[in-house]
Amino acid sequence: MSQTRKKVKVAVIGAGISGLSSAYRILTKYSDIVDLCVITEFDLDDTTSIVAAGLWRPDEHFSADEDAIQQMKQWFLATRIYYESLVEKGLDAQRGLSTNFLLKLEVDRNRSNDCFQDIVPFEILLSVEETQRLYPHAKIPSKVEFASLTHAFICRPRIYLPWMKEEIVKMGGTFQVGTRVHAFEELKDFDVVVNCSAMSAKTLASDDKMVPIRGQVTLVEAPWISTGMHCDFSSYILPGMDGTVTLGGCYQKGNDSYEVDYELKETYLSKCYEFAPSLRSARLIKDMVGLRPLRVGGPRVELEMVVVGLKSDRKLPVIHNYGHGPEGWGLHWGTSGTVLELFAQWMQEFPIK
């Protein structure tokens, strides 16, 4: 008589793009043998991931060394390949994904994204004069030295995240909303934990490399806008496939306030209007603020055996996946793929009978 194998109890901390994609990847392969619960302090509408524009256009914000840059390059590329597969299968619209041209107004000849140029499908460099001819109605900021017209993906969080949550539930996953995990000890009844706790990792994982990067955006309805614009986070126009456009923004390192700054809003909106005057007539949907969870040196994606209990010698497997900063959407499929690999390795080394 055969015995029923005990299911592996998996806790995923966090319901942002990193947490949901990690849970989704694990369940896609192991749904028949895992009992997975996403434990989150916030529901989808209150996560930083829902505030984001969902942009894939690799950039280096992490002060990373060469090894970390090469690893991030693989993660960015994996996400690009995944997005391209959705387009090939005709699933892009269902997932909220669009392929866009993005005009990046560059204020420094030494661009932070140069290290990722070989994985960007398309880019044309433009002088300020050429940019002005291309957009004769636009007021180009005086600090701009040149521009690049490049390929980008934009994945609408308000379409993609609910879809992924629904898929997780279909595969047997559950959600525990309203719970903040203060210590891994609280999850000692689980067999393995996936830590996608974003800024909470600063205390939960005792990681002093975590720094909040405050972002503020205004979501408007403007279906006539088709090309995005980005100027060093001080102003950007990022259109989605659903007719909404994300207007921003800011990159405030160390600022952890969730309050809408209306003076800042007026500043970035005026810059957006100077580039695309028709946006003045766009219908306001919502002002949003999020804290991008940046880890100096690059995201942490690795397995750690964490001792739980002061008098216990038990070690809880914790797969970390946090610290993506403003690149969560660009990195998510790559880093969750590494989470899946680490989970598979742990399953082989520590089988649950």
Describe what this molecule looks like in 3D:
The chain is elongated and about 70 Å long. Helices cover 30% and strands 29% of the residues. Strands 3, 4, 5, 6, 9, 10, 11, 12, 13 and 14 form a ten-stranded mixed beta sheet that branches. With 353 residues, the protein is α/β, with parallel strands linked by helices. It has helices at residues 17-30, 48-51, 66-88, 92-95, 128-134, 157-170, 201-204, 262-275, 328-349, and strands spanning 8-13, 34-40, 55-56, 97-106, 123-126, 146-155, 174-177, 192-195, 210-221, 228-231, 235-239, 244-248, 252-253, 283-295, 300-307, 315-322. A hairpin with a 4-residue loop joins strand 11 (235-239) and strand 12. The longest helix is centred in the N-terminal third of the chain and has 23 residues, at 66-88.
Question: Mean pLDDT, rounded to whole units?
Answer: 94
Sequence of secondary-structure elements: EHEHEHHEEHEHEEHEEEEEHEEEH
Ends distance: 16 Å
Structural class: alpha/beta
Rg, nearest Å: 21 Å
Give the uncertain stretches in residue-range form: none
Tell me roughly what share of residues is in helical segments.
Answer: 25-40%
**Count of β-strands:** 16
Number of DSSP helical runs: 9
The biggest beta sheet reads:
10 strands, mixed
